[in-house]
Amino acid sequence: MGTSSARRAPTTWRWRRAKAAAGRYLAPEEGAGLEAREVVARYLAALGEDGASGQGLAAEFRLTRKAAQNLGAFLSEAASRGWDAAWGATTGSSEPGPFQETARPVLASTLLEADGGLEAAVARSSLVMVLHGLEGAPPPSPAQAVARFLAEALYQRLTLDLGESLEATGRSYGQWRQGLAGLRSWIVQAGEMELDEPPPPQQWRGLAGWQWVTLALEKMLGRLQE
User: The whole model's pTM is what?
Assistant: First the structure.
């Protein structure tokens, strides 16, 4: 039903609990059903096992945070000079606009500054999704768009890691889509929190931008782990 590219996640105790939660979420008739919030919380507990560096769960999203900084800088440029000028300044291209079908992946790759690996693939796909949602609209608040991107990246990573369990227990395509929508809605809701004052436009790519993105991600993860 669309998750054939799911990553085969580890098989530790926490990962087994996360996979079991995904199954009970879509097949509650086989036992006590779980809400989306419980699936996400168990997933984050499992994902945290991978971070042996002691830097916390946010360390699993280093490339994602860098892309978020660059997205904030791009949107700040768009807010002050317009979409076309921001596109040219970011990509070095004289071709107009970031919203042509072939342009969004190019812009996403430029904002990501990395290639290869699961996190990079998820971040690139999430950037394309966020940019697609901005098409035809005036530039949004960079802080809100960055928070939306962080939520989308977490959602996509979850569906890759738990995709097999979700697909195995979904009894129909409609139920599967509804279940995924519930997971995305819960993660996005956690990302729509009160955000701190974002950095000035010229500081998005510097230390101030990195710290702001990291704090926003940590707040979102903290809410989802409660």
Answer: 0.88
